[in-house]
Amino acid sequence: MAALESTWPHFAVASRPRLDQYLVPIGNDPPGRSAGQARRSTRMPNVAYNQSDDPRWRSFASTRSGVCMALSAHFVIKALRGEDFWAWLSPPSGRDGGALRVLAGATRQSCVQDVRFLYDHHTKLKTLHGDGYQAVENNFLKDYIATLGGRISGQLVQARPDHALPLRVLPQEIGRMLAGGNAVYASWASLKLNGAHAISAVPGPGGRFRFFEPVLGEREHASVGALASDILTATMQTHGIVEIDRYLLMSFSM
After folding, report:
1. Is residue 186 predicted with pLDDT exceeding 90?
2. Does residue 95 form part of some domain?
3. What is the pTM of this model?
4. How many domains does one find in the chain?
5. In principle, which of 58, 122, 228, 229 could form an S-S bond with 175, CB 3.0–4.6 Å?
């Protein structure tokens, strides 16, 4: 573990830059609080985001493959560390080409570097191990999240049935882990889409629960049941599937 850990990105306390066109808060600020005060709170309001619209990933991820995995993993890591995911993800306020070139250069403490590290690892494992890369990647990713999140280990659940599963199985399992006080990283694969996707969910303050979908953003719910229902509906509507052929769950104690 030490050898791997020495190569992983280092984190710094984010300066909480303002949200720009890539991050769009949904709804109004709480009564009596300014937008700046809301962003300094312990949680963000619901936030719309789509990784496909974020130009920072185009410098190295032509197909975006692996970006959803990296973003979802860091959503869990930030929750485990008690840090602001959106402050980490939010690009600097400048929108000109020069600012984007700086982002594409992946300076040491940029989220671009963190995402690219996992993206490059994902790509290399697929090249080295072919169809067998997933088992290797899953164990690496579990250790990556646990170590950077400050947890010794996480539970790893993999399902590779010989037939397709109803999509509802995935949010049900995510909800079960959340109810136990765990942060959850999840991924699924669909033969129909010939692809895979990753999402994550974490317990929030006040007994609420937060769900991150890289092509939709973050949503918060008052109950596990409401969150599981949202995951099911969002996945069906966004990806057009009702069945999955494989899924992976990792849970980490908060």
Report:
1. yes
2. yes
3. 0.76
4. 1
5. 228
